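seq:
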Amino acid sequence: MAPVSVAAGFPSPAQDYFTGRIDLNKHLIHDITSTFLVRVSGHSMDGAGISDGDELVVDRSLTPVDGNVVVAIIDGELTIKRLRLERGRVRLAAENPDYPDIIVPELSEVSVWGVVTRCLHHV
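struct:
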């Protein structure tokens, strides 16, 4: 089932609506066995539309690439940042100018737990 489109500007007739059961797994999750939710704590990703208290859908089956928002572990600490791969180094970029990027030192241990695929934002 495709999502129903709704105008955010001027109202449109409610001809295209769905009355069946909604399965969010079909819409939000690609690989259910490797997907989990995390709750965001903090404001370092505000510029990416990820706010304190949001829930993120994270898929561990995806290979992280430059530009993905990821859940990473650096020296035993979890963080959510944008992955930047630059000239042989890893930078975990914040999306808020009030927070510094993390440039991963060569001897630090960093691993990506998963790639963020959706942000569930409270309204």
